[in-house]
Write a structure and sequence with these properties.
Elements (H helix, E strand, L loop, with lengths): L5 E6 L2 E6 L10 H16 L5 E6 L4 E3 L4 H4 L4 H20 L5 E5 L2 E3 L1 H8 L2 E5 L3 E3 L13 H9 L1 H10 L2 E3 H7 L4 E3 L4 H13 L3 H13 L7 H12 L3 H11 L9
Parallel strand pairs: 2-3, 3-5, 4-6, 5-7, 6-8, 7-10
Antiparallel strand pairs: 1-2, 8-9
Length: about 260
């Protein structure tokens, strides 16, 4: 699949997906969501890729929301389908990837942009970033998982306030709330994320995939997260990565995981 709105690159086991619609502040439209799905899927299937970074082009916006012009005329049926398709293709898909995903928030992350960042496994923001879910100011609500993931990350009360006021918070507030893990300068953002990704890439990709599944299980209705963890822990004992990791530890050397 050729891309019109994103750039996919990879080196040293790290894939970088850049949303590249600078004239629209990298706003998400249906085509971009489909391209992102394809890029994440390709990166996840590539066994040489251990970590995925997603960011926006330029220094103004990560993703400044959804492309409103695309759905302003939609009716109930089309609006429902837009939300359902987007969640299936991108937001739920990314959250449940076996390959860890880091959002490098390089500017505005609003609406669908913040929802994209929140479905990543964790987030790093530059100090000029601004985040929010302004949908109620347009007479609609977050439709790509924002009402679910934001309370999980920052708590119900803060999420309610942020959604109801349609306001924005800066990177410092986001760090204080637990919405992002780290804040850096704009210039250092990607290099900082690559350092984090390199640390992750040294570890067992098999174990990391199992850990992602176990952590996510705690947030799914009807699933016992402790049971998922117990089973995943037990299954790890039959993997080549476990054998290599424990052998390397006993031999006092760095493990080289076969994956």
């Amino acid at each position: 699949m050729s891309y019109n709105n994103i750039i996919l690159e990879h080196s040293n086991g790290i894939a970088t997906i850049t949303i590249n619609r600078p004239n629209k502040l990298n706003a998400l439209n249906i085509e971009t969501i489909k391209e992102l799905h394809d890029a994440f899927d390709k990166a996840n299937r590539n066994k040489a890729i251990k970590v995925i970074l997603v960011t926006g082009s330029g220094n103004k916006a990560f993703v400044a929301g959804a492309d409103i012009s695309e759905f302003a005329h939609f009716d109930t049926e089309k609006g429902t389908q837009l939300s359902a398709n987007g969640q299936k293709l991108l937001f739920d898909f990314v959250e449940n990837l076996a390959t860890p995903v880091i959002a490098a928030i390089n500017g505005f992350a609003l609406g669908g942009g913040l929802e994209l960042a929140m479905c990543c496994h964790f987030r790093v923001a530059c100090d000029t970033a601004k985040m929010g879910l302004p949908e109620v100011s347009l007479g609609v609500i977050p439709g790509y998982g924002g009402t679910q993931r934001l309370p999980q990350l920052i708590g119900k009360g803060r999420a309610m306030e942020l959604i109801m006021t349609a306001g924005m918070i800066d990177a410092g507030q986001a760090l204080n709330f637990g919405l992002v893990n780290h804040v850096t300068s704009q210039e250092e953002l990607l290099s900082f994320c690559y350092k984090l990704a390199s640390k992750i890439a040294q570890n067992s990709s098999v174990a990391i995939a199992a850990a992602i599944k176990a952590v996510n299980a705690n947030y799914k209705d009807g699933i016992d997260g402790f049971k998922v963890e117990i089973n995943a822990f037990g299954n790890a004992f039959s993997t080549k990565d476990f054998k290599e990791g424990t052998t390397a530890f006993l031999e006092k050397r760095r493990a080289v995981f076969p994956g």
